[in-house]
Amino acid sequence: MTKNEGVHRTVTMRDVAREAGVSVSTVSHVVNNTGARIGQEARERVRRAIDKLGYRPNALAKNLVTGSSRFLGLVADAIASTPFAGQIIHGAQEEAWRHGYVLLVANTDGNEAAEASAISMMLEHKVRGILYSTWYHREVKLPAALAGSDTVLVNCYSPQGEVPAVVPDEVNGGHDATRMLLSEGHRRVAFLNTRALSPAREGRLRGYRRALEDFGLVFDPAKVVDVQPDQEGGYAAVGEILALGATAVFCHNDRVAMGLYDGLRDRGLRVPDDLSVVGFDNQEVIAAHLQPPLSTVALPHDELGRHGVRVLLGIEEAEQTGRLEVNCPPVPRRSIVAATRR
C-alpha cells in the first residue's frame, strides 16, 4: 500500500471546474445559485461533474450561500509593494472592520493568471463583493472573472462604466496646487507635466488652466513643459523653466519636483528664494524630507480604500457618471514664498 493510498481528499470547486471544462467562478455561480447568466449546457456539465466527483460544499460555503458572508475581497496589481499606495489596503481594511467585514487581499503583480485565480478563490469563499485596484490612476479592462460579482474599481476605471469606480479628483488637485502659487502673488507659473498619457496628465492640466482663469490670467501653452515623470525629468527641465522667466512651478509629481530642486541647486539657485515649487502625491519619503520641505497635493490613497468599501456595501453611491471622485487635499510646507519677496 502506497503512502497516499486510501487517503480521502476533499473534492474542491477547482476539481469540478476541471472536470466540467468551465471556470471556478462558473461552478461557484451554479453551486450557490447566484442568478448569474450561465448557459444551460454549462450548468448541466457542472451538475454532472458534481455528481460524478461527489462534490459537497463545506459548512462555511453553506453558510455563505445564505448571504451571511463577512468577507470582502481586494485584488490589486501592485499596491501592496509600492511606497505610498499600500495605504489603499489600510483604508479599505479599517473601513471593512468598521462594518463587521474581514478584507481578503491578493496582490497579483499584474499577472493575469494569478489575478483570475485570486478572483476565483474569493468567489469560492462567497465574498460580499470585490474591490479591484491599481497602484496608479488609469483606465482598465474589467477582468472577465469579475462578471457576476459585486465589484468596485479603486484608483482605476473602466471606460464602459460597467461598475462603479472610486478615483482621485485630478482636476481639483491640479487646481489647488496651482492656486497655492497664485495666491502668493505669482503670475508666471509654469507646469511640468508628464509625457505619459493618463488621467493624471489630462486632469491636472485642466486644473492648472482653471486656476489661471480664476485669477484672470490667460493660459500660455509655452509654460506647460512635458517631461519624463521622475527625478531626471525635473532635473532636465531646469534650463527651460529659467528661460521662461517663471517665478513658480507646479510639478506633475514629487519626484519631478525633487529633480527640479537638484537642478536649481547645481546652478546656485534656491527654493523658494529663486523659484517657488509645488509637487503632487505627498510621497512623504520625498516631500517632507526635501530642503526646504515640499508643498504638495496629497493623493488620498487611504480615503480611496475607505470610499471603495462604502460604495461596495451600498453605504455611499457613485455619481451618475459611475465615478466617485475623492478630494486631493493641499499640503502646504516651505517651498513657496510670496512673489513680493523676490
Commentary on this structure:
It is elongated, with a radius of gyration of 25 Å. The strands form three sheets. The protein has a six-stranded parallel β-sheet, with helices on both faces. It has three domains: 13-58, 434 Repressor (Amino-terminal Domain); 66-167 and 302-326, Rossmann fold, CATH 3.40.50; 170-299 and 329-341, Rossmann fold (3-Layer(aba) Sandwich). Helix 1 (13-20) packs across helix 3, helix 5 packs parallel to helix 13 and helix 7 (170-182) crosses helix 8. The protein has helices at 13-20, 24-32, 40-53, 59-68, 87-98, 112-124, 170-182, 199-214, 231-236, 238-244, 254-266, 284-287, 301-312, and strands at residues 71-76, 102-107, 130-139, 151-157, 165-168, 189-194, 224-227, 248-251, 276-278, 296-297, 323-326, 330-331. The protein is 40% helix and 17% strand. One of its GO terms (molecular function) is DNA-binding transcription factor activity.
Task: Show the helix and strand layout.
Elements: H1 13-20, H2 24-32, H3 40-53, H4 59-68, E1 71-76, H5 87-98, E2 102-107, H6 112-124, E3 130-139, E4 151-157, E5 165-168, H7 170-182, E6 189-194, H8 199-214, E7 224-227, H9 231-236, H10 238-244, E8 248-251, H11 254-266, E9 276-278, H12 284-287, E10 296-297, H13 301-312, E11 323-326, E12 330-331
Parallel strand pairs: 1-2, 1-3, 3-4, 4-5, 5-11, 6-7, 6-8, 8-9
Antiparallel strand pairs: 10-12
Helix pairs in contact: 1-2, 1-3, 5-13, 7-8
